[in-house]
Amino acid sequence: MPGLTLLVALLLIGIVARSNLIAMAACVLLIIKLANLNFIFPLLERRGLELGLLFLLLSILVPVATGKISEREMLYNLTSLPGLLALFGGALATHLNGEGLKLLQLQPEIIFGLVIGSIIGIVFLGGVPVGPLMAAGITALFMELAAWLKH
């Protein structure tokens, strides 16, 4: 079965690197593949990122919903230096994520390098696995810089 070996490799890498998210994702995809539920793959490909981002935003916005962050604190933060830097950082990050999404659509095979690089970052640099999209965005930036330096 095509892709089976890579999924098993990702599962093992996730287990060895103690990255539950990578291991679980590989495991879920293996179950879908082995159960011959291939109709789920296009749905995941089209809407999986949106669903993941929805849950990420939900977890980040819980303090707003529970009242742990007040409107006054939010407004102050938007006018303070850290708040303004956060606005710039958010705009830059979303731009890079967009570039990463384009890169993943054009070269989906690059995902394996992104995952291995993320695992290296987790294991050796104490990083947090927030997903391959930002890694793809940074990779797209590096690729653009390399192309620019080449000329």
Task: Describe the protein's architecture and organization.
With 151 residues, this protein is mainly alpha-helical. It has a domain at 70-151. 81% of the residues lie in helices and 0% in strands. It has seven helices and no strands. It has helices at 4-16, 20-34, 40-65, 71-79, 81-106, 111-125, 132-150. The chain is globular and about 55 Å long. It starts with a helix and ends with a helix.
What is the N-to-C succession of helices and strands?
A: HHHHHHH
Largest sheet: none
| Rough outline | globular
Question: Nearest-angstrom radius of gyration?
Answer: 18 Å
Structural class: mainly alpha
Total count of strands:
0
Percentage of residues in DSSP E strands: under 5%
Low-pLDDT regions: none
Please, how many helices? Answer: 7
What are the main properties of this structure?
globular; 0% strand; transmembrane helix; UPF0756_TM; mainly alpha; UPF0756 membrane protein SAMN02745219_00507; membrane; single chain
Secondary structure topology:
Layout: H1 4-16, H2 20-34, H3 40-65, H4 71-79, H5 81-106, H6 111-125, H7 132-150
Helix pairs in contact: 1-2, 4-5, 5-7, 6-7
Organism: Desulfofundulus thermosubterraneus DSM 16057
Transmembrane segments: 49-66, 78-98, 110-143
Family: Belongs to the UPF0756 family.
